[in-house]
Amino acid sequence: MTERLRVREIDDDEGRRLVRIVRRGAGSVVTWRRAQMVLLSAQGMDVPAIAKVAFTSEDRVRDVIRNFNADGFGSLYPKYKGGRPPKFTPVQRREIKKIAKSKPAEHDLPFSAWSLAKLADFLVAEGAVDDISHEGLRMLLRREGVTFQRLKTWKASKDPQFAEKKARVEQLYAIADREVTPEPGDPEVIFCVDLCRYRDYAEGQAAGSCRRGRLARCGSA
């Protein structure tokens, strides 16, 4: 039975260095990917599982592990001829833009939207580019007119009485602000808790948009 390939034993300093490279996520994507594979192997993950996580082939994972075992951290850094990464050709730029404007699901990826890190990782894994930094990718996409924006999500309540409760809460706000006259059975004292957060949700206002005066009146009612 063939012995399972795994990274050599690494000490605490080497482990911390690998974690810093993976967590920082800056600079070369190739270095980040190689460090991720080595770290996963050191944590006991086998080659097939690492290949799935890294969206690459098992042979590629084996090469990275063997190179690290032989050359250490020097094997994590790509060696460019001429001292700097090559510029991207027009064909490469078109491919990068095409993939950036596509949906991850179109490539059978388990997430709904691209981030710079995920896109850069995928571009290298697919061979669209040999290497690219996150900042370099961001600048390239900006020049090509492609931008990433933070996703905004909305959540709907599953409470069947949500509309009724929401209307009652808004009525109490109106009473506290003296916008309506209390009816028989309405409370004489009203305490409003987390007013800004509720109004941001109910009215779609920007965070911090509640006026201090209104908050103070509700809080002291």
Brief description of this entry?
The protein is an all-alpha fold and 221 residues long. Helix content is 51%, strand content 0%.
Give a structural overview:
By secondary structure, the chain is mainly alpha-helical. The radius of gyration is 27 Å and the shape is elongated. The C terminus is likely disordered. The chain has 2 domains: 132 residues, no CATH class; 58 residues, no CATH class. The protein contains 10 helices and no strands.
Q: Given the C-alpha coordinates, what overall shape results?
A: elongated
Helix count from the secondary structure assignment:
10
Q: N-to-C SSE series?
A: HHHHHHHHHH
pLDDT averaged over residues: 75
Largest sheet composition:
none
- Structural classification: mainly alpha
Percentage of helical residues?
40-55%
The overall number of domains is 2
Cα distance spanning the termini: 77 Å
Radius of gyration: 27 Å
Low-pLDDT segments, ≥5 res: 194-221
Q: Please tally the β strands and state the result.
A: 0
The fraction of residues in strands falls at under 5%
